[in-house]
Amino acid sequence: MITELGIQNFKSWKDTGKLQMAPLTGFFGANSSGKTSILQTLLMLKQTVERPPNWSGIIDFGDDNSQVNLGTFEDLIYQHNLNSTLGISFSWKLTETLENMGMKGLDKISFHLNINEVGNSVITVGFSYKVGGNNYQVTSDVNGMCSISIPGLSFSAKSLIRCFGIQSRYTDETKDFSTLQTQFENLFRSIRYLGPLREYPRRHYAWQGKHSPGVGQHGEDMVTALFSGRIQLRSIEEEIPRWLERLDLIHSYRLNPIFYTEKDYEFLVRKYKDGPEVRLTDVGFGVSQVLPVLVLCYYVPEGSILILEQPEAHLHPKVQSELADLLIEVVKNRKLQIILESHSENLIVRLMRRIAEEQISKEDTAFYFCEMKEGTSEIDKLIMDDYGNIENWPENFFGDATGDLIEKTKAEMKRKKEQGL
């Protein structure tokens, strides 16, 4: 689980400061306030980790086929200032201690990354791991040479492989470093991402016996995950129908093989008990938009990290509230970490209520409000008390509903006065 995150000079962020992350972490705020950019730093590192072994880059800013496409260093650096340093820092908690490194009882790793561009698109990198009181540092120069410092040893070599690791041929000297790199890779491979624009439902779905690590960036692999979940005996077949019924969206569903093909299926649903079966394309759009969220929450292995953008998109306010209960359930029962970006007042109000009802503790949540001031993103942590009250509720957090009601009342009184009522 990621426990802290800090970003410097990334897009509209000069400096986020140190953000405390919780099992359920939410970023709220107006459009273009920098919420998504925070998530993009993690996705950038994830796609760097997942590049094939023969990839020769240092960090993957992405392309049209990536989960995130950030363009060039100049595109993403704060105010496009090429003299600035991109910085990303985070800490994460392991599920097991690093006893093989002689660090019994230590289960937290901190990582810091600095990236610069030095003319002609040459990227230089400095990164470090910290475990307890031990530091492991690497700094590269424009020629690709690295200064490597680990406890009790410093040396230089042309061994940088990516922005988080060095070549493993120095096995004896750097075995601890290799362990840390592996933990870094495991962390980012545990992340699953679902974007804000889910795929439009199809009349037919094809499954060729393949398995998927998630539901895809746009939910395009949702049916593949459903089939995979069946085969791997996960609880997905019980949980998804239960939640669809609780959300009052549909009563049940089934994947029906099309008899004249070998690989195609219809996604059939019943809106209510004993009702007719219809295709997913013929029911409300919200069903197809929330299904990938539900499937992802119950398909991924326990302990995974989910990054969700606007999970409430296209959902009725009541369903948005119920969605908060889904997130609480999988955080508690499946040990998932949820990092979300949302515009939903209904979702956060339900979360506040559940804290008051002690269904989730305030320590297991962290909510942030982002806003743009003079071209720079700023962030405040929402201070929550034990009863779910936000003590520093931002002005116009979700618009100005009270102000609208006041102005509506004024307009009503003015009209009645003009009409002599």
Q: What are the defining features of this structure?
A:
about 425 residues; alpha+beta; about 30% strand
What does this molecule look like?
The protein is of the alpha+beta class. The chain has helices at 35-49, 73-76, 171-189, 222-231, 236-246, 285-299, 317-333, 345-356, 401-418, and strands spanning 2-10, 13-15, 19-20, 24-29, 86-93, 108-117, 123-131, 134-140, 146-150, 153-157, 160-162, 165-166, 191-194, 205-206, 252-257, 264-270, 277-279, 305-309, 337-342, 365-373, 376-381. Strands 1, 2, 3, 5, 6, 7, 8, 9 and 10 form a nine-stranded antiparallel beta sheet that branches. It has a six-stranded mixed beta sheet with strand order 13-18-19-4-20-21, with helices on both faces. Strands 14, 15, 16 and 17 form a four-stranded antiparallel beta sheet that branches. Helix 4 (222-231) packs across helix 6, helix 5 (236-246) runs antiparallel to helix 6 (285-299) and helix 7 (317-333) crosses helix 8.
Secondary structure: elements and pairs:
Layout: E1 2-10, E2 13-15, E3 19-20, E4 24-29, H1 35-49, H2 73-76, E5 86-93, E6 108-117, E7 123-131, E8 134-140, E9 146-150, E10 153-157, E11 160-162, E12 165-166, H3 171-189, E13 191-194, E14 205-206, H4 222-231, H5 236-246, E15 252-257, E16 264-270, E17 277-279, H6 285-299, E18 305-309, H7 317-333, E19 337-342, H8 345-356, E20 365-373, E21 376-381, H9 401-418
Parallel strand pairs: 4-19, 4-20, 13-18, 18-19
Antiparallel strand pairs: 1-2, 1-3, 1-5, 5-6, 6-7, 7-8, 8-9, 9-10, 11-12, 14-16, 15-16, 16-17, 20-21
Helix pairs in contact: 4-6, 5-6, 7-8
